[in-house]
């Protein structure tokens, strides 16, 4: 569940997507209209021949979410504030158990089950895109926290007197490292878009690869913020790997090279210094695969491969 699309799939115990459904999110409409689009996705999946074999339902939603209450309040869907999404979905899935997690946690579950963090006992997985989210695997199991938001690295403050963040704090990782903020910072520093007028972080990345000093500096600043957040997480919970996905990760070495270099500046204690940084591998299907993995773990249906 996101601000742009509502996607659903039937996922088997090997992480394969057997059927799909998708609708655009009517993000500016009222809550009932948004729920109507969710219901259409569920109806499309229920019409598939595999639906009778479905044993649990997982939801990965843009946040904030509150799994303890089964509610969601996506910042880019104003019609949903503390919306009882678990209750509404449960009414439509014939008594099957429903598990809710944040979208960053869902991505983490996916990358631990089928992706770059597979086989790792302790991991941080991150989505760096329009925002910055994340989740944790601790002792081989997805660690969601009481509300389903544990590991939300985007709102760790890494610049104590930095710019105000929409969350209400200052100097958050998201305020520095998200795609829109990479582009904003480059533009403010004098970067000029190309003839096509593209002002996105992807365009800044292309300029950086071509050697533009301002574009490179903006990505280096983002990498520094990510490195500080990863190091703080490693110091707290002793992760062994940080997996990074999302659109900004598509910049490749423009992001990963300075990130790995700056991580050495912050992760200096012996138990944190060995953290490996890897790109995510599951791409846009991670949310669907991860919602299934979270549901499987949450209900004990089957052991998620890769967990210890």
From TrEMBL:
Gene3D superfamilies in alphabetical order: 3.30.420.40
Superkingdom per UniProt: Bacteria
InterPro entries on file: ATPase_NBD, ROK, ROK_cs
Family, similarity comment: Belongs to the ROK (NagC/XylR) family.
Protein name per its UniProtKB record: ROK family transcriptional regulator
């Amino acid at each position: 569940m996101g601000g742009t699309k509502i996607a659903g799939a039937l996922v088997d115990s090997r992480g394969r997507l057997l059927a799909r459904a998708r609708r655009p999110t009517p993000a500016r409409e009222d809550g009932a209209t948004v729920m109507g689009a969710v219901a259409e996705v569920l109806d499309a999946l229920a019409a598939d021949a595999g639906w009778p074999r479905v044993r649990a339902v997982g939801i990965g939603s843009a946040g904030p979410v509150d799994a303890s209450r089964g509610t969601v309040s996506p910042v880019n869907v104003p019609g949903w504030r503390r919306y009882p999404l678990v209750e509404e979905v449960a009414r439509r899935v014939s008594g099957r158990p429903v598990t809710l997690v944040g979208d960053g946690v869902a991505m983490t579950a996916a990358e631990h089950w089928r992706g770059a963090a597979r086989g790792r006992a302790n991991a941080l997985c991150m989505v760096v895109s329009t925002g910055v989210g994340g989740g944790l695997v601790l002792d081989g199991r997805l660690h969601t926290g009481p509300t389903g938001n544990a590991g939300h690295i985007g709102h760790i403050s890494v610049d104590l007197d930095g710019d105000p963040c929409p969350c209400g704090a200052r100097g958050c990782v998201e305020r520095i490292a998200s795609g829109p903020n990479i582009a904003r910072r480059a533009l403010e520093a004098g970067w000029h878009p190309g003839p096509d007028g593209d002002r996105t972080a992807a365009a800044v990345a292309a300029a950086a690869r071509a050697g533009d000093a301002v574009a490179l500096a903006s990505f280096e600043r983002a990498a520094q913020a990510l490195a500080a957040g990863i190091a703080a997480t490693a110091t707290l919970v002793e992760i062994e790997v940080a997996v990074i996905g999302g659109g900004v990760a598509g910049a490749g070495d423009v992001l990963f090279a300075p990130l790995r270099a700056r991580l050495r500046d912050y992760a200096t204690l012996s138990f944190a210094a060995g953290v490996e940084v890897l790109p995510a591998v599951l791409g846009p299907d991670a949310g669907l695969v991860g919602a299934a993995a979270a549901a499987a773990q949450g209900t004990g249906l089957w052991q998620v491969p890769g967990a210890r």
